[in-house]
Amino acid sequence: MRKIYLVPALVGLLTTVAAGPLAAQGVQGVTPRQKAAAAPKAVAAGASPGAAAPASAAPAAPSETAPADDKIKAIDGFRSAKFGMNEADVRAAMAKDFSPKADAIKSQDNPSELTHSVLLPVPELLPNGGTAELSYVFGYKSRSLIQIGAVWSKATDAAMTPEKLFSNANILRAHFLSEGFKPDSIAVNMPVNGGIVMFRGSDAKDRSVILLLQGTFENKENNQRVLTPTSLLLFYVADAKSPDVFKLPPGQF
To answer: Where are the domains of the chain?
Structure first.
């Protein structure tokens, strides 16, 4: 069974892409290998997969008037499951949203972060997108919902293809760009270790959505680095900067 982690992956992503508004910026030299949709424009040629945007990259032009907090998209969970719910309430929300069979929901513990998760495969979570696996993560101290994730890959759907993964990523990125997240939190098409952050955005309370297309890179002509997607990850995170996971107290070692 796939292990569900909150950190360091998400905290690292926030650190990597927290460079300001980048919604108008593309990715040069990083071309997802696909047939179903046009590749994003890109990051500076020769940039490493883990590199943030180059200093010369042009940020998106800020709007003349920043939207008020009550006009910014609120990220409070996913569908009927809301941050802060206990496991019983989340299971009830899953039943309401997806009507799963009694044995479809699985449990999993993370031995290093001491978090607990419940997992559910959902066919067509995204229309025509194939089967995804949903994960609902409960915090170490609070035992309440702190993260919801969705993963598309061959592990979740044997018929999944790189073209389908990239098509799913494009659809979701376009949707999130229209949702009204906090403008200075938005980043798109940012190369990171092992993939591309297709979208990252936060709300007025710094709760975040992260869409990550993972895969393998190959160097091609003209310094282009071609990504063959292997998985697409979508995260809704209550607090990625200070997640409720186990950490050793200072001074013990």
So the answer is: 9-53+73-237
